[in-house]
Amino acid sequence: MSYYIIEGGIPLKGSIHTQGAKNSAVHLIAASLLAKDEVTLENVPAIADVLKMIKILEKIGAKVAFDQQKHSLSIDSRGPVSPHIIDPIASELRASLSFLGALLARERETSILFPGGCNIGSRPVDFHLKGFSALGAETSLEHGLIQTKAARLTGKRIYLDYPSVGATINLTMVATLAKGETIIENVAEEPEIVDFCNFLKKMGAKIKGAGTKRLCIKGVPYLHGTKHRVIPDRIEGGTYLIAGAITGGELTVKEIVPQHLEPLLVKLQEAGAQITQAKDRVSIKAKGRLKAVNIKTMPYPGFPTDLQNQMIPLLALAEGTSVITETVFENRFLSVSELRKMGANIRIEGQSVVIQGVESLTGAKLASPNLRGGASLVLAALAANGSSEVHDIEHVERGYEKMEEKLRGSGAKIRRI
Ligand code: EPZ
After folding, report:
1. Is the CB of residue 303 less than 8 Å from the CB of residue 324?
2. pLDDT band at 117 (very low <50, low <70, confident <90, very high)
3. Fewer beta carbons under 10 A from the terminal one: N or C of the chain?
């Protein structure tokens, strides 16, 4: 299995370009099935999760061409597609769940293996199934297979118990092809939801309220193909900004929407980093030791849960005591035990971690527990004295395209073995 060897202690300099957003691209790939037409997506990241979504598309009969250099993906689903996804690959990522909504809307019936994804909590699918049945579908979840079918789909008023990203995506897809108007209250407001709704509107969907707590969707008889450029990945970009800060360097992240990173930028400034922003880039400079800050993860526009793990090593080296509280997932501190091997002083207390800053971390042999946990270990290794090995990096490569190349390009001593 591949792993990274990282020599720590080198301040990162220069600039890093972001990839297209993983948590937009994977959902757009599924939504392309809503139109029995051709769809072209630009700025699609060449990462394992995208390749898995493409594989599922091909398995059910869509024609796909992905130019990984140009990050350009064309999908042709004019022909028949099977509405049943029983390939084990579907249980390797959470985003496969979005095929449920797309195929229920397109074929009026579908079945898919229970999705996978990071081991960060139970991650049930009850909001999705409750929403599908509100729109007229019968749903069942037996033997690890989710099945839905609907003679007809009728618009309804739906209230989400929690602003779930995945459930917002799935219910919006079904509503675009349901009869009449659907109102979904308490939806997710993430930038990836706005990007998703913009894509559907370009396909002919009638959607109002993207980026607010309420979506109003007027059903249409069909959708047509379109071309769309995926928004920049705010979580990848934020990860590299933290890399700049933790190594005491001066780094610019290019092709980013600064507003999408507001909660992170505010916290980094509070900790003492210097941030400058332009239209499509953010620069960070962190000379000297940062100060402790407290963080609580919330749905957008709160502090993103997907950047929570990356803040732990940064605050492990800050002056003072920081508290990070995770409110979105139940089990998202799996990298803490690995960071302790490097000398971090961290206590887990329920849904929070209490971090006593230390002067330095030392390199160690580390195992990535999941995608963002693995990224946090890379950040710790970049700042530690001496050399570290970060293993199980297939988790990291699910969501970060060419991480070692991008880091090496800004001065890091990192090798992929
Ligand atoms: C999406 O996951 C992202 N993944 C996650 O990114 C991200 O952390 C999450 O949204 C929150 O922003 C993709 O978009 C592929 P949720 P999703 O439904 O849709 C509970 C990463 O690192 N819930 O908003 O699965 C759920 O258990 C990944 O890139 C239910 O209880 O997240 C969680 O506690 C990790 N029932 C909370 O809601 C449901 O039916 C938020 O989940 C659905 C969700």
Report:
1. no
2. confident
3. N
**pTM of the entire structure?**
0.98
Q: At 394, which helix (H) or strand (E)? A: helix 394-397
Confidence category of residue 299, pLDDT binned at 50, 70, 90: very high
Q: Distance of alpha carbon 162 from its chain centroid, rounded?
A: 18
SS3 assignment, position 206: strand
By the 10 Å C-beta count (0-12 exposed, 13-18 middle, 19+ buried), 36 is classed as: middle
How far does the centroid of ligand 1 lie from the alpha carbon of residue 393, in Å?
22
The three-class DSSP label of residue 86 is coil
Q: Residue 126: what residue type?
A: D
Distance CA(187)–CA(167), nearest Å, equals 8
Q: What is the pLDDT of residues 310-358, one digit of tens each?
A: 999 999 999 999 999 999 999 999 999 999 999 999 999 999 999 999 9
Q: Is the CB of 130 under 6 A from ligand 1?
A: no
Is 118 a pocket residue for ligand 1 (Cβ < 6 Å)? yes
pLDDT tier at 122, thresholds 50, 70, 90: confident
Measured from the CB, is residue 257 less than 6 Å from ligand 1?
no
Taking each helix axis from N to C end, the angle separating 262-270 and 234-246, rounded to the nearest 10 degrees, works out to: 10
Residues of the chain above pLDDT 70, percent: 100
Residue 388 is classified by DSSP as E
